[in-house]
Design brief:
It is built from eleven helices and 18 strands. It has 383 residues and is of the alpha+beta class. Among the domains are: 36 residues, no CATH class; 116 residues, no CATH class. The strands form five sheets. It has a six-stranded mixed β-sheet, sandwiched between helices. Strands 1-5-4-10-9 form a five-stranded mixed β-sheet. Strands 6-8-7 form a three-stranded antiparallel β-sheet, with no helix packed on it. Helix 2 packs across helix 9. 30% of the residues are buried.
Amino acid sequence: MESLFLQEHATSEPVLLQPDEIKALLRLAPHLITIKPAEQGWRITTHSWVGSMLLPTGRTLVVQPKVPINNLLFMLASQYQLAQWERYTQLDACKNYDLLDIYVFVLLEWLEKLLQRGMLKEYQTLEEDLARVKGKYKVGRIPTEQTRFRCEYDELSHQTVMNGMLRGTLRLALQLPLQKPLLTRVKNYYRRLAETGEVNLTEAMFQRLAYNKLNRHYQSIINLCYLIFSNTVLHERSGESLFSGFLVDMNRLFEDFIRSTIQRQLPERRVVKSVKTNWAQARQTISHLPALIPDILIEGRKILDTKYYRNAIHQEKLHSAHLYQLATYCGAYQLDGILVYPENGQAINESYQYNDTCLSIRTIKLDGTIAELIQSVEELTLS
C-alpha cells in the first residue's frame, strides 16, 4: 500500500482514510497530529513530531522534518552520544531511507561488527540433574532420577543483559514501519541472536547500565538501541495492534540539543532545567503557588526558554505569552533571559530592557551547515 507523506507543521490536502486508520489517528490527537473531516476525505495537520507510523491497514504515514536530515541526525547523535555517526550519513544506502530506516540500518551495521568481534559472555549459574557431579553437589536435594545428581555450576554464556537488550531492540524494530529489504535483514539478525536470550526493554534498564573496559565497545550500540526505544510509539488494545511508529518530538529535541551544546561549551557551569517553587512571598499559604520551570538555566548567568515554533513573529508581533513567561522567569531568578526560536527564514536578534533584566529574542539556524548550527547555539552565551 502506498505511503502517505506529510510535512512537519503543515496541513495536508484532503486524503481518503479507512475507518481503522481514522480510529488510530484520533488516538494521536491533539498533541501529535490533528485530523478534521473535509468535503472529500480528511485533512491531517502535523505538529512538532516527525517520523513514521504504521497504520492498521498496512499504510505508512511519514511526517518529514523541515530540518535537513543530516542536521537532524547530528542533533540526535549529539543528544544520545552516538560515536562516529558522521560517516553513516553519507552512505548511498541511506539516501532512500527515512529517519527510522537509517537508524535501523546503522544498528545492523554495528551489530555485524560486534558479531565479528565476538559478543560478550558472562558466567551464568546453572542448576540441573547430571549423570556426573559438576561444580557443587546440592546436598539434601533429591535427584529426579536415581542415577543423576543435582548440581550447581557456572558456565560462560552469551545470555547477558546487554545482548538481550540488542535482541529486544530487534524485536521492537520488527513491529515498526521499515522498508521490506531492511525488515528482512532485521528478521535474519533476530534469528542469529537466538542464543543471547531476550529482555523486555524498559527506561530503568537503560539507566542502570554501567560500562567498564570489558563492555565499553557496547556503549554506542546500546545508546542507539535507547534512541530507537525511547522514540517508539506502540498502541495496542487487547493484544490487537492499532498502530506503531517511530516519532521524534522536535520541541523536546530542540531544547535538549541547545542545553547539551551549551553545557559542553561551558563545562565549568551547571546548565540545567531548573525548578523554582518559592518565587513569590505568600501572605497566607504558598502551597497553591505553581512552580516556575524555565527550560534552561545557566547557573548564575542566564535563562533560556526554547520555543520550537514555525515563526517567532505572529501577526507582526512577538508572541506576548512567551515574553510574559520569560519576564516572570527573569524576575524570579534576577537574571537576563533569552527566548530561542528556529530561524525558519527570518533571523531575529532583538533585546529589550525590562525592569532590571534584559529580555532577548534569538533564532537558531537549523537549515544551514552543521558548523553554522553549532555556532548559532554557542553565540547564545555571548549576548
